[in-house]
Amino acid sequence: HVNTLTRQLQDDMMEVLNEVWGNSAVKSAVIISTKPGCFIAGANIDMIKVCKSAEEVSKLSKEGQMMFEKIEKSPIPFVAAVNGTCMGGGLEFAIACHYRVATKSKKTVMALPEVMLGLLPGAGGTQRMPKMLGLPTAFDVMLTGRSIRADKAKKMGLVHHVIDPLGPGVKDPEERLIEYLEEVAVGVAKGLAKKTVTVEKKKGLMQKVQDAVLGIPLVRNQVYKTVTQKVMKQTKGLYPAPLSIIEAVQAGVEKGPAEGYHVEAVNFGKLAMTPESRALIGLYQGQVACKKNNFGKPEREVKSLAVLGAGLMGAGIAQVTVDKGVATILKDTTTEGLARGHDQVYKGLNDKAKKKSITTFERDMTLSFLKGQLDYSGFEKVDMVIEAVFEDLSIKHKVLKEVEAVIPPHCIFASNTSALPIREIAAASKRPEKVIGMHYFSPVDKMQLLEIITTDKTSKDTTASAVAVGLKQGKVIIVVGDGPGFYTTRCLAPTLVEGIRILQEGVGPKKLDSLTTGFGFPVGVSTLIDEVGVDVAAHVAEDLGKAFGSRFGGGNVDVLKTMIQKGFKGRKSGKGCYVYSAKKKDKQVNSGTEEILKAFKLTAPPAVSGDEDVQYRLVSRFVNEAALCLQEGILADPVQGDIGAVFGLGFPPCLGGPFRFLDSFGADKLVQKMKRYEDAYGNQFTPCQLLLDYAKDPSKKFHK
Amino acid sequence: YVFTTFIKLSEFTKSKKTLSKPGVRNVVLVEGVRTPFLQAGTTYADLMAHDLARGALQGLLNRTAFPKEAVDYIVYGTVIQEVKTSNVAREAALGAGFSDKTPAHTVTMACISSNQAMTTAVGLVASGQCDAVVAGGVEFMSDVPIRHSRKMRKMMLSLNRARTLGARLSLLGSLRLSHLVPELPAVSEFSTAEMMGHSADRLAAAFGISRLDQDEFALRSHVLAKKAQDEGLLTDIVDFKVPGKDIVSKDNGIRPSTMEQMSKLKPAFIKPHGTVTAANSSYLTDGASAVLIMSEEKALAMGYKPKAYLSPTYAIPKVLERSGLTLADIDAFEFHEAFAGQVLANLTAMESDWFAQNCMGRKAKVGAPPMEKFNLWGGSLSLGHPFAATGCRLVTMVAHRLKKEGGQYGLVAACAAGGQGHAMLVEACPQ
């Protein structure tokens, strides 16, 4: 039920357009979608995916360019009437029209998200946007791919006119809204034909000044330079699409439309063939797949929920729950803890209000769904309890027993733990079929991933319910099997331990960070340790070390323990690998930690300690552990493995996740590298059977 | 949205009887008056809200010759409050010479404030707590409170507490230009951040009410009001003497125009495609109204000829269910006309099965009142709409219409910001 640009649609559209142009009685035209909530969602990705060569994709781009050019140069004016999603090719279509009217419905979102798929707006977008919005804004829109709501679009000059959504009347409100949009758009179209309405927008003083300044070639050159520098800084040169976009824009502005459209089409074709684009498209499609409930409709909808523990995680979970209008109890054991948690939820919502994505009234109304308390009153009516208390099995058992004494029989007990096996927590339960793991990531309101862990006793309905709650909270969900560290923590632990060894071998925290971010991780390993918390990292490393033995060895956990003793617990304590202060932006390496690292110094084997080897030592341990999870059935499929790694742990999105990486890099090549590391360090680098199988047969791929 | 007020209109059973119920005191409207309604910024411009309220209260006393000390209670409505007279009911009552033993409270419920004042009065009488209550409302739009900015207020309050000259100087030193930007009274609703006129335009669009329909309805209102004025039917008006100026005795906003002139106006809120204009909206108005509400027995005992029975609750579904009336039994309808588009949207809603089923939880439509019984002496569009004074104007007018037209039942309905509505059944007293 969405419109996408396909060959078929293109042909149908041309037919109608020719009819319109052939009829001299038609003085103007309106393009509108009758589908609720969708103008045009963009080009159909499959249309691009089936192409075998860059030329084939370029041809697609050229066809799109031609169609939109015909509209732009049409003898009669075209009005685009936009309600709902207007993305990618859809927005390119709209901006080829002469006038745009949009509804201010919450569903009306405009964006050029191609860059997030490793592509560029290939149907004239890179050429029309700068003319319409000016260079800086056009770059911002195309390089971030961000979503623009109607009122913002009006301010930017992307649409001429906006109309407010309607309340109930004598028919379905959205049906009436689309009718109303049509009435208004037809009015505009008639006005354009009669010349009582003009296409030109009045420019403000700032706009005039900007236009004048950008009229100077030297200034424009500076803009290209600055934008390129910014892109390089953010992408480390790992993403070709943003640079291609800049190139296409520059070609059009500096050398004229013919060259501009040509570069746009050629670059579009080239980009479609890059592994980065394949990876990003894979992630997009994986994300869509992980936003579905594959466990059916739960028997009962969770209408009220209780969260135990008002710490960072608990309050975060409460926030994303009340945000969707679900009555939520936030329970803690102290008033101080409760007050802090309540403040966190308030701040989260207030920040949204400050950014104007919600009104202060909506903030207050949302907050009214939250009830903070110290006792178990009202628990007899809740449908789900999510505990986010301290990561200690005996505390979790105690809490579980307390809760089970008060909750109704149908109530689900979910544990938010990053490493404790759910079956061990469920061992204390009278009804293990109602016990499940829900592993959220911090900060909960920002991180998209939710890892749901089922034991062999967890019922299907319990899983369905947990997934439904997660989806309502807006999460991307992977459902994995139970075991120490589940999937995500299990991949993270060996990577962190390897990071510690690398630090012990004398690579400084800053260098380690730049090596990891240089590979495409958004956060470097040293910084990650500080963010996660040195104590948490030590806890996880030790626990999983016990569970998995020497394979999880490498760095010495005592490094972390000594850091904790000295009070270096990471960002939360102000010191970890780095020293954090509110004033200085540029963080300094903590000399105390450097001393500890000296005390635990290891000799780096020269054969495997070059920069690239250091990177691959980290990545190969991550990827090997992910493959092991698939081999052991912790992971159901590679798609969830990729989504979990990218959205939960920041595995480089340009690589598309560990499995996509194996497909594009080659399992055999990775196995070769691992064998070299194995020779130097031992079984931490022994490739798992699945990796060996894929290495033996290069035609075997995780993704088809 | 005022739909809540119409919910069970068609559930009446067809059996004519009086609204009076055994065991419940009959509550009657003895008299209702109002000051002339003037466009804001005209003759009343230099007054204050309580001055107009005093005028209405005194006018009520003069017309009824009611002994002040026999008034048990005063309830008065206002929307935009003058900070100096936050309980405007009390200030106006004392100023009008009422006894200081008579308690007075102010009520605010947007455009149905005086409807709520009357409802409270009816409740006080019906429950036996009072025998005679004065209700009313005032709105004064010629002057509204404009505040200093929050920053400025904070600084001024701190200045008050500052002990030393140094502390005061340092506070003054923190003064920035932005402190001086004033805060205008909210024209938009707090909860929705939407202006009334904007909302009315959307409402009209949702129900597909055209600009032409709205202009025609507004013209009708002005023409009917002019006729009523010329024929001397607006007898609820009491003269008001503005100090240093003339005696005001007529509403000054009635201005029948032509469809052609009205069609030239640009939309006032949603530009350029909206349909609500200055001509088909009610205008900013100064004015006050007051009614005397009593128990029937006491009124008769004191020698008054009550005008109408008022139903003892403001929730129309309950009233109508109990009264067992149908729409056809109603002889005079007086609906508040905030915007032509809003009135027409409501009438359309009452005629819509979809609306009844999806928004009211009913099986079928309510049905709309016939236009030949509807707002025959003009309405808020033409007579003016001093927010908190309109309710009493509606009730008094329906009582006067029943008398003039010889009808038995009247229905008053009004909408208010915040998605609230109010309705009241009025029955003519035997002559």
TrEMBL record, chain A:
Record's subcellular location: Mitochondrion inner membrane
Family, as annotated: In the N-terminal section; belongs to the enoyl-CoA hydratase/isomerase family. Belongs to the enoyl-CoA hydratase/isomerase family.
EC assignment: 1.1.1.211, 4.2.1.17
UniProt keyword Nucleus present: no
GO cellular component: mitochondrial fatty acid beta-oxidation multienzyme complex; mitochondrial inner membrane
Assembly notes: Heterotetramer of 2 alpha/HADHA and 2 beta/HADHB subunits; forms the mitochondrial trifunctional enzyme. Also purified as higher order heterooligomers including a 4 alpha/HADHA and 4 beta/HADHB heterooligomer which physiological significance remains unclear. The mitochondrial trifunctional enzyme interacts with MTLN.
GO molecular function, one term: NAD+ binding
UniProt site (Important for hydroxyacyl-coenzyme A dehydrogenase activity): H439
Catalytic activities: (3S)-hydroxydecanoyl-CoA + NAD(+) = 3-oxodecanoyl-CoA + NADH + H(+); 1'-[1,2-di-(9Z,12Z-octadecadienoyl)-sn-glycero-3-phospho]-3'-[1-(9Z,12Z-octadecadienoyl)-sn-glycero-3-phospho]-glycerol + (9Z)-octadecenoyl-CoA = 1'-[1,2-di-(9Z,12Z-octadecadienoyl)-sn-glycero-3-phospho]-3'-[1-(9Z,12Z-octadecadienoyl)-2-(9Z-octadecenoyl)-sn-glycero-3-phospho]-glycerol + CoA; 1'-[1,2-di-(9Z,12Z-octadecadienoyl)-sn-glycero-3-phospho]-3'-[1-(9Z,12Z-octadecadienoyl)-sn-glycero-3-phospho]-glycerol + hexadecanoyl-CoA = 1'-[1,2-di-(9Z,12Z-octadecadienoyl)-sn-glycero-3-phospho]-3'-[1-(9Z,12Z-octadecadienoyl)-2-hexadecanoyl-sn-glycero-3-phospho]-glycerol + CoA; (3S)-3-hydroxydodecanoyl-CoA = (2E)-dodecenoyl-CoA + H2O
Designated name of the protein: Trifunctional enzyme subunit alpha, mitochondrial
Domain spans labelled 3-hydroxyacyl-CoA dehydrogenase NAD binding: 305-482
GO biological process entries: fatty acid beta-oxidation
Residues annotated as domain 3-hydroxyacyl-CoA dehydrogenase C-terminal: 485-580
Keyword Transport: no
UniProtKB/TrEMBL annotation, chain B:
UniProt keywords, alphabetically: Acetylation, Acyltransferase, Endoplasmic reticulum, Fatty acid metabolism, Lipid metabolism, Membrane, Mitochondrion, Mitochondrion inner membrane, Mitochondrion outer membrane, Transferase, Transit peptide
Domain Thiolase C-terminal as annotated: residue spans: 309-427
Reaction(s) this enzyme catalyzes, per UniProt: dodecanoyl-CoA + acetyl-CoA = 3-oxotetradecanoyl-CoA + CoA; tetradecanoyl-CoA + acetyl-CoA = 3-oxohexadecanoyl-CoA + CoA; butanoyl-CoA + acetyl-CoA = 3-oxohexanoyl-CoA + CoA; hexanoyl-CoA + acetyl-CoA = 3-oxooctanoyl-CoA + CoA
Database matches in InterPro entries: Thiolase (IPR002155), Thiolase-like (IPR016039), Thiolase_acyl_enz_int_AS (IPR020615), Thiolase_AS (IPR020610), Thiolase_C (IPR020617), Thiolase_CS (IPR020613), Thiolase_N (IPR020616)
Residues at the active site: C111, H385, C415
Alphabetized PROSITE patterns for the sequence: THIOLASE_1, THIOLASE_2, THIOLASE_3
Metabolic or biological pathway: Lipid metabolism; fatty acid beta-oxidation
GO cellular component, one term: mitochondrial inner membrane
Enzyme category, top tier: transferase
Subcellular location: Endoplasmic reticulum; Mitochondrion inner membrane; Mitochondrion outer membrane
Thiolase N-terminal domain span: 27-297
The organism's place on the tree of life at top rank: Eukaryota
Keyword Acetylation: yes
Enzyme Commission number, as recorded: 2.3.1.155, 2.3.1.16
Single Gene Ontology BP annotation: fatty acid beta-oxidation
Molecular function per GO: acetyl-CoA C-acyltransferase activity; acetyl-CoA C-myristoyltransferase activity
NCBIfam families: AcCoA-C-Actrans (TIGR01930)
Subunit structure, interactors included: Heterotetramer of 2 alpha/HADHA and 2 beta/HADHB subunits; forms the mitochondrial trifunctional enzyme. Also purified as higher order heterooligomers including a 4 alpha/HADHA and 4 beta/HADHB heterooligomer which physiological significance remains unclear. The mitochondrial trifunctional enzyme interacts with MTLN. Interacts with RSAD2/viperin.
Known role: Mitochondrial trifunctional enzyme catalyzes the last three of the four reactions of the mitochondrial beta-oxidation pathway. The mitochondrial beta-oxidation pathway is the major energy-producing process in tissues and is performed through four consecutive reactions breaking down fatty acids into acetyl-CoA. Among the enzymes involved in this pathway, the trifunctional enzyme exhibits specificity for long-chain fatty acids.
Protein name as annotated: Trifunctional enzyme subunit beta, mitochondrial
Gene name tied to this protein: HADHB
